[in-house]
Amino acid sequence: MLDVYPNPVTSMANVTLDVNSLENEISVTNLSGEVIFASTFIGSSYIISTESYASGMYFIEVITDTGQRFTNKLIIQHQ
């Protein structure tokens, strides 16, 4: 399971997995399918700064080193 909080987010989104994985790929895509952020991380949590992204709905996807895929919605809502 992939958890994203707070959601909606204004500046920093916490992403947590309920599985232990050595290396994970994370990406954020907009509704057009364009990847606007991609990175790798070790462990079960990651923090994404959302301050430079426009308000709206996005999708976060994490792929673990074992090939498991997790996806969740991310709503960015700037003041």
**Mean of residue pLDDT values:** 95
| N-end to C-end Cα span | 29 Å
Rounded to an integer in angstroms, the radius of gyration calculated over CA atoms is: 12 Å
Order of helices and strands: EEEEEEE
Give me the count of strands: 7
What is the count of helical runs? 0
Overall 3D shape? globular
Structural class: mainly beta
Which residues form runs of ≥5 with pLDDT under 50? Answer: none
Write down the oligomeric state: single chain
Defining key terms:
single chain, 3-stranded antiparallel β-sheet, 4-stranded antiparallel β-sheet, 79 residues, mainly beta
Question: How would you explain this protein's 3D organization?
Answer:
The protein is globular and about 35 Å long. The protein is mostly beta strands and about 80 residues long. The model has no long low-confidence stretch (mean pLDDT about 95). It has no helices and seven strands.
Describe, in short, the structure shown.
With 79 residues, the chain is mostly beta strands. 0% of the residues lie in helices and 56% in strands. The protein has no helices and 7 strands.
Secondary structure elements and pairings:
Elements: E1 2-5, E2 12-17, E3 24-29, E4 35-41, E5 45-49, E6 56-63, E7 69-76
Antiparallel strand pairs: 1-2, 2-5, 3-4, 3-6, 6-7
